[in-house]
Amino acid sequence: MAVTITAFEHSPDRGRGLARDMRVRWALEEVGQPYDVRLLSFGAMKEPAHRKLHPFGQIPTYEDGDLVLFESGAIVFHVAEHHAGLLPSAAHARARAIAWMFAALNTVEPPIVDRASAILMERDKVWHGERLPILDDRVRNRLRELSSRLGEADWLDGAFSAGDLLMVTVLRRLIGSGILEEYPNLSAYVGRGESRPAYKRAFAAQLAVFAGTPQSG
Amino acid sequence: MAVTITAFEHSPDRGRGLARDMRVRWALEEVGQPYDVRLLSFGAMKEPAHRKLHPFGQIPTYEDGDLVLFESGAIVFHVAEHHAGLLPSAAHARARAIAWMFAALNTVEPPIVDRASAILMERDKVWHGERLPILDDRVRNRLRELSSRLGEADWLDGAFSAGDLLMVTVLRRLIGSGILEEYPNLSAYVGRGESRPAYKRAFAAQLAVFAGTPQSG
Questions:
Q1: CB–CB of B146 and A114 under 8 A?
Q2: What backbone phi and psi angles, to 5 degrees, belong to A180?
Q3: Residue A47 has pLDDT above 90, yes or no
Q4: What interface predicted TM-score (ipTM) does this complex get?
Q5: pTM, full prediction
Q6: Residue B138: how many CB atoms within 10 A of its CB?
């Protein structure tokens, strides 16, 4: 069955895999679900045709026959629920993996996005120099807690899950900040995610859009 | 079966129901699941005993026998998955309701929390007066899109769901800002949520903690 997702026509991160379609590509690769990609300009994302699919005019979306979904977390969850490989089958472990999905998106990602937004949108403001260290420390608070929980484990709760998939993509948004490297076990955790074959296929597919080479779905 | 959640011993919002235990209480009331509440001081939340349950040292948590969960979104989802009443049974409608859960927490809540954090933590900064209107406008951008999607409907996608439950609690964090009132259909939407009997029972229960009156679980 044909699955179609949407992604940026012009990658704002120059192909570093930080856009939210990366999460969905990775999940689809983990479960072996082929997919097509429809690329959108920034203008097209805000047009009524796309807003019918995504009320907030963003990417990614997910279309599978009559089903249209938005929100990367929800799409990853949908993929995980309908294929083996991203959620444990045992009920309690499954619920805990889902908790990590929400933790990645609702507890760890917000301070990381805040920091990135400030750098993008407030760097010309007089307060930027004083405010950025505050934002850095908010990120560090979360990372310290996450690092402490992860400890020496490979993944957050037993086997690799959709919770790890989302957490790794969230932590990757810190690339270039130097902050992730302050927590060696988190750095290694991200590295483990990036070394998964499914991750590599997804990364290559999103990079191909930026590089302008033909994409294999 | 005994379900236990955690909540603040001293309500930082003076019982207005803005703490994240409100979401869980409301979900449990919607499905008719009795629950006990263990109240925590701010100090106890950061102690190792609680961090075993919640790696980020926050409330709420959820305990049901051997199962321990954290993250309000994950707990609401767990309750919704194991009881009737918060997620549609039709597969596509269910997936869309879950998309709204993630949208509430990952797309709509972050700018609202940002704004609240700035008021709480940066009001003594010289930049606060210039920065607050920027934050207000980020909130308005999301609300305009949400308002446009909701239109004249009662709920975001068909019947009331866990997606509406989370979205209403997220929008309620704007109480007192005057911003929600700029979008009459969103204001009415929040009002519909607040008028549900389950909401009222949950609200009274969290208010009882603040008021110091005995709590019925």
A1: no
A2: -55, -40
A3: yes
A4: 0.95
A5: 0.96
A6: 17
Q: Domain spanning A3-85+198-211 has what CATH number? A: 3.40.30.10
**pLDDT for the residue numbered B214:** 56
Count of H-run helices and E-run strands, chain A: 10, 4
The whole-number pLDDT of residue B4 equals 98
Q: Which of A49-58, A147-156, B11-20 has the lowest mean pLDDT?
A: B11-20
**Contact, B143 vs B186, CB < 8 A?**
yes
Q: Name which residue leads in pLDDT, A200 or A210.
A: A200
Is the domain covering A91-196 a CATH 1.20.1050.10 domain?
yes
Chain A: nearest CA to B213, how far in angstroms?
Answer: 32
Copy the structure tokens of residue A153.
């484990």
Handedness of CA A182, B50, A110, B78 (dihedral sign): positive
Contact state of A77 with B98 under an 8 Å Cβ cutoff: yes
- Tokens 């937004």 belong to A117
Q: Where are the beta strands (DSSP E) in chain B?
A: 3-8, 36-40, 61-64, 67-70
User: Closest approach of chain B CAs to the CA of A208, in angstroms?
Assistant: 27
Chain B residues with CB inside 8 Å of A127's CB? 125-127, 130-131
- Measuring CA to CA, which residue among B48, B54, B83, B86 is closest to residue B71? B54
Chain A residues whose C-beta is within 8 A of a chain B C-beta are 51, 55-58, 66-75, 77-78, 92, 95-96, 98-99, 101-103, 105-107, 109-110, 113-114, 125-127, 130-131, 142, 145-146, 148-149
**Closest partner CB to A55 (pick from B67, B101, B149):** B149
Spell out the domain ranges in chain B: 3-85+198-211, 91-196
Radius of gyration over alpha carbons of chain A, in Å? 17
Handedness of CA B76, B79, B84, B90 (dihedral sign): positive
List of chain A residues whose C-beta atoms are within 8 Å of the C-beta of residue B70: 99, 103
List the A67-70 sheet strands across, edge first. Answer: A36-40, A3-8, A61-64, A67-70
Chain B residues within 8 angstroms (CB to CB) of chain A: 51, 55-58, 66-75, 77-78, 92, 95-96, 98-99, 101-103, 105-107, 109-110, 113-114, 125-127, 130-131, 142, 145-146, 148-149
Note whether A165 and A27 are within 8 A (CB).
yes
